[in-house]
Design a protein that fits this description.
By secondary structure, the chain is mostly helical. It has 13 helices and two strands, in the order H-E-E-H-H-H-H-H-H-H-H-H-H-H-H.
Length: 311
């Protein structure tokens, strides 16, 4: 009689809990960042949206009063808001050459520098970026002073009239545009220089072997491959240019003279902390957030369509 081997069914290992743990593991790492983002960004945004339908002077004993859409209607009909919107557009347009155009040209012209000269030029051009904005504002106030400033002293030495850089309504806004752009030139130049150095030398060597001139190499190879950086800096300037100028408006002109240098960000601050109109300030913030959100989506779509990548 032969023994018949009885095969018992093997237990299938339970992998479901391990699979679930592996799927949840990335979210566990992201949980702190998500919590911070929700607590410090989205919750205040929702609270600001709710507050935009109320009138409140932020005093502890006063109660917010519901006014519906009145805050939005009043803001859209205010001459101050219309002027602030126009000035915001002027800030953006004025900053684009300083944050994109000039740094691109400087980066292309200095790409051939070697050795210590390259580090020296980068250090010099990046110095304005590391200066604190309020310190830069104080230095420029001293330089541009109409009575004793060095710039006006130099103009008078050339037999020219003194210019009220911070007092003349026709000049003050463009003065703040220059100061803001002066701070951005070094940062943008370094970004362009880094992106240019990442371009494969084989493209340029192949173009030279085909007889391409230096200008043709810049036009047909280097600039197209720099398009992602160009579009990125353009988007950052459009979205944040007027916001970057807030410190200089607050420190140098206070929105004047005659409201010629105010913008939507300074107007929000003025409503919220000068006139204590929390409802108007938050309503202006929601409008700005909505408009710039749509602009950001449009910029991202343009970047996907027109950016050229080295693939």
């Amino acid at each position: 009689m032969t023994d018949t081997a009885i095969s018992l069914p093997r237990a299938v290992p339970r992998r479901l809990p391990r699979l679930r743990l592996s799927m949840a593991e990335p979210w566990l790492y992201l949980a702190p960042a998500i919590a911070v983002l929700v607590v410090w960004t989205y919750v205040p945004l929702l609270q600001a949206f709710e507050l935009s339908f109320y009138q409140w002077n932020m005093l502890p004993r006063s109660q917010p009063r519901y006014v519906g859409l009145d805050n939005y209607v009043n803001l859209l009909t205010l001459p101050d808001m219309r002027r602030a919107v126009v000035n915001t557009l002027l800030y953006t347009v004025g900053l684009l050459p300083l944050s994109v155009g000039v740094p691109l040209v400087v980066a292309l012209l200095t790409a051939g520098l070697k050795g210590p000269m390259r580090n020296i030029y980068r250090a010099l051009i990046f110095v304005p970026m590391i200066v604190a904005p309020i310190v830069a504002a104080i230095v420029w106030r001293w330089l541009l002073n109409e009575d004793h400033g060095l710039v006006n002293a130099w103009l008078q030495g050339l037999d020219l009239d003194a210019v009220g850089f911070l007092r003349d309504p026709k000049v003050a806004l463009w003065t703040l545009v220059w100061i803001t752009g002066w701070k951005l030139i070094g940062f943008s130049t370094l970004l362009f220089a880094a992106a240019d150095s990442a371009i494969s030398p084989s493209y340029i060597e192949a173009a030279r072997m085909d007889g391409a001139s230096r200008w043709q190499i810049v036009r047909d190879i280097r600039v197209p491959l720099l398009s992602p950086t160009i579009l990125l800096l353009t988007m950052m300037t459009i979205l944040f240019g007027a916001q970057w100028s807030f410190v200089y408006i607050n420190a140098l002109t206070g929105g004047g003279p005659l409201g010629s240098t105010t913008n939507v960000y300074y107007l929000m601050w003025e409503y919220g902390f000068m006139t204590m109109s929390a409802g108007w300030s938050t309503a202006a913030g929601i409008l700005v957030f909505s408009v710039f959100g749509l602009v950001a989506l449009a910029c991202l779509a343009l970047m996907k369509r027109f950016a050229v990548y080295d693939e």
